[in-house]
Amino acid sequence: MATRVLIGGQWGDEGKGKIVDVxxxxxxxxxxxxxxxxxxxxxKVGDSKYVLHLIPSGILREGKTCIxxxxxxxxxxxFLKELxxxxxxxxxxxxxxxISDRAQLALPYHRALDGARENRDxxxxxxxxxxxxxxxxxxxxxxxxxGLRAGDMLExxxxxxxRVNIREHNxxxxxxxxxxLDPEAVVSEVLAASERMKPLITDTTLLINTAVLKGEEIxxxxxxxxxxxxxxxxxxxxxxxxxxxxxxxxxxxVPPNRIEDVIGVAKAYTTRVGEGPFPTELDxxxxxxxxxxxxxxxxxxxxxxxxxxxDAVVAxxxxxxxxxxxxxxxxxxxxxxxxxxxxxxxxxxxxxVIEFLPGHINRFAACKPVYEEMPGxxxxxxxxxxWEDLPEACRNYIHRLEELTCAPAGLVSVGPKRDETILTPKxxxxxxx
Length: 433
Ligand code: IMP
What we know:
The protein has helices at 16-23, 76-88, 108-119, 135-144, 158-175, 183-197, 204-213, 246-250, 285-294, 312-322, 361-365, 392-405, 429-432; strands spanning 3-8, 29-32, 41-45, 48-52, 65-68, 73-74, 97-100, 104-105, 201-202, 218-221, 261-267, 270-272, 306-308, 310-311, 326-330, 340-349, 352-354, 368-375, 409-413, 421-423. It is of the alpha/beta class.
């Protein structure tokens, strides 16, 4: 199969970076299709550790071409900082990193507005707990059609249009009783960045569709997760883009009927950062134990992640809205030392047991998890390399997740390194070699 989308099946931070890194061995092209530097992928290659926010992790493999598609929002300063870090790690990106001329720019005033909204101390406004990277305000400008796109950097009137935007956003900041930005400082920062970005800006829609027609292997790298999707997630506690598989088409210009496979990534338990309901959240020692063993701190903001048991209602929903064909289950080893492990199979809402996810946030917030409990395996799994190496109780746990979510597990990850990965008998034959 030539075109695959990789999607987070929970609230983001599922460990997609590592799975992308493993799967890109086969792919020639890796495309981001939504989000910006709100994402955070930690990838370990040998003894080196990279934290990537915007640049696809495929960049760490020689010979792969990476694309930031039209659905992304690009913070020029953040992008260049990351590019410098990748270069400092000895990675040559020349000729294999492209930015869509249709991608939106996330500019300093978007960051300022994001922070201003999050800081509002007003009981009537919802605090989302954003990453403060300006993502929401940048997408808002896109929708109101005042946003600047990467392609605008190539045009003679870019500075003029930038100045108009700075003026308008400064007025909004005044409305929020926040300090305004110095227009000259913003203009010089953005223009300097644009000089470095210009050679990378191109019509990626044409590039990637040409690759699709040639039958080249393409991996669409989702950021965040299903429950953070602007339409299908736990609105309003979501990000501002379509994180689900449909976003791969709209966010790159590759038509939906050219996308052949959808892989969901889910942790063996659940985490989320930011505000909003989380039915299986463990506000106790067990939650702390998972956080500690799993090193659950946000790669972008360093915030501690909220932890809980695997929520099969959420994962089943992710299978439905994304068309997930198979799962990559990550961080299985984090559960190595538990006597018993719970799985949320359904919710109790208003005295009824429901097996689906309610659409309204108030109803979702009222859901109580219905659990079943399975025996733990109490054996280290990080050294396991085949499905048969895994303890029986561990395999049973995976089987149960498959049953409850209606999708097979083709890959399980038992540690952060590339080789700490097991392809199960259910992985597509081409991966099992
Ligand atoms: P924003 O994307 O910065 O606007 O933040 C909106 C919500 O999405 C917040 O709850 C963030 O914590 C969450 N979020 C954004 N990016 C990620 C991510 O990469 N992983 C997990 N949560 C994220």
